[in-house]
Amino acid sequence: MNDSSGAFRIALRPGWWLDRLDGDGGVPLQEVLALLAAIDATGNITGACRACGLSYRHAWGVLRRFETLFGVPLLVTHRRQGTELSPFGQRLLWANRRIEARLMPLLDSLASELQEELQRLLPEGKPHLRLHASHGFAVEALMQHMLAQAPGLELRYRTASEALAALDAGECDLAGFQVPLGEFEPAMLAHYRQWLHRDEHLLVHLAVRNTGLFVPPGNPKRILGIADLARPGVRFVNRQTGSSTRQLIELMLRRLDIPVSRVQGYENSEFTHMAVAAHIASGMADTGIGVETAAHRFGLEFVPLARERYFFALRRDLVEQGAWKALLAVMQGEAYRGFVGQLVGYDARETGRLQTLEQAFG
Fold it and tell me: What's the mean pLDDT in 22-27?
């Protein structure tokens, strides 16, 4: 908390603990995981110590302690070639990355709910907007910019269908959803129409983004498109049931007359683009679907499949509220648009544009 201004931000983070079977208490892994990540990034312990703000002696103590606890080495040292993680150390680090990618959206959503509950109890609490949206990098960035400039946005991560249903029921003020450009737009819109009403709702454009397949560096399985998902030996990881990304994959497979039963791993799913990317990068699958930004952040190659427009839907009467005007000012501001525009695979040229459904879709 910042006592001088009364402003604060609640954050929740996942944490690993090793519970000792001898009943001698638990051991937190945060420090060793941060150290392993730094060694993986720098290729040597000296650089990792500098990055983590640790002394060389303390870092070695941490590593030796956990090597003793696990009973296996965490590092492999090569003369004149620096230090790298052992196979066990690599698996430990990737397990942590998968956990963070899977849990962080849920924890961010819970933190946002808790923050709004507490702020309502404070003197002169500001009106807030309720945003339901699927996890994405532009949405995540919007929360950061709103906290810095105009507090009052409560975020709950939901699929597009859940978000639009909540908007239609009056359970949220803004609902995020994406629509692919091109041949699959009509089918996706037909699904959304049950919750979107031309006389009740407006749209604000968030971004255009690239969606496609993630593959390891070098694309060893030569995965070039949707048809390759049905090849023997290709392990796929999907998005969760009900997500628009999963629905897009289903439409693409249907166009090629490929039953989902032919796709190995079709029922294996993750809730975020980053979790899918972590799955591929750790070697647990050969390919998965998501936005290009996630592939870039995990050092994966990207096979483009579609360009998607991402919108927030809102009720027409919301545009007169001060909280909405503050949000729109952030979305149309140079700082936010500049940030979204530099995300790999994102286009922010229309960010913040208010439209009717007719203007957006004809």
Answer: 70
* Cβ partners under 8 Å of residue 127, min gap 6: 152, 321, 322, 323
Q: Give the number of other CB atoms < 10 A from CB of residue 322.
A: 11
Q: Is residue 2 domain-resident?
A: no
User: What DSSP character marks residue 150?
Assistant: -
48 shares its domain with 29: yes
List pLDDT tens digits, range 267-318.
999 989 999 999 999 999 999 999 999 999 999 999 999 999 999 999 999 9
Query: For the domain that residue 60 is a member of, what is the CATH number?
Result: 1.10.10.10
Q: How far, in Å, CA of 341 to CA of 207, rounded?
A: 9
Instruction: Please tell me whether residues 148 and 33 are part of one structural domain.
Output: no
Helix and strand tally (H, E) in the chain? 13, 14
Query: Of 125, 145, 170, which residue sits at a domain end?
Result: 125
Per-residue model confidence as pLDDT tens digits over 195-252: 999 999 999 999 999 999 999 999 999 999 999 999 999 999 999 999 999 999 999 9
For residues 188 and 244, the answer to whether their CB atoms sit within 8 Å is yes
Q: Which of 125, 140, 155 is the last residue of a domain?
A: 125
Which among 35-44, 79-88, 219-228 has the top mean pLDDT?
219-228
Q: What gap in Å lies between CA 11 and CA 79, rounded to an integer? A: 42
C-alpha span between 34 and 58 (Å, rounded):
13
Quote the CA–CA distance of 310 and 188 in Å, as a whole number: 13
Q: Which residues pair with 314 in a beta bridge?
A: 174, 202
